[in-house]
Design a protein that fits this description.
Blueprint: H1 2-10, E1 22-25, E2 28-31, E3 35-39, E4 44-48, E5 55-61, E6 64-71, E7 79-82, E8 90-94, H2 99-105, H3 107-110, E9 112-113
Antiparallel strand pairs: 1-4, 2-3, 3-9, 4-5, 5-6, 6-8, 7-8
Length: about 130
């Protein structure tokens, strides 16, 4: 976790820092420890690192908010992607939006992990 905090500090400055949070507004590619997500125009993502063994990403899509968890022990959630890594081994999606909104945003399909993760996102490195 210390390495992740160091890499956060070493990465490019965020779009709008606020109290330890990093905010991104699409269109932009956001890379987590084990995934990449291309935000569409107008979508926003706020990275919150609570300093524990997980990272949270608060997302705001046109159809409402949802949460992405990256770690090993998520709370009950709507959907998940197994990364194949020892850490983080789960990308959990907490999405209480209506089914129509989930279908339009295709968030699960847009979370790129493993070989689908772009070369611009080195594994194990948070880079925005």
């Amino acid at each position: 976790m210390i390495l992740a905090a160091f890499l956060l500090l070493a990465a490019a400055p965020p779009a709008a820092p606020a109290g330890g949070e990093r905010r991104f507004t699409g269109p932009v590619l956001v890379c987590g420890e084990a995934f990449a997500l291309r935000l569409a125009a107008g979508e926003r993502l706020t990275l919150r690192d609570p300093g524990l063994d997980f990272t949270l990403y608060d997302a705001e899509a046109a159809d409402g908010p949802f949460l992405i968890y990256e770690g090993n022990a998520p709370q009950p959630h709507d959907d998940e992607i197994r990364t194949g890594l020892s850490f983080p081994n789960v990308i959990a999606i907490h999405d209480n939006r209506p089914a129509e909104a989930k279908a339009r945003s295709h968030i699960r399909d847009r979370l790129l992990v493993g070989d689908a993760r772009p070369a611009s996102c080195p594994a194990g490195r948070i880079q925005r």
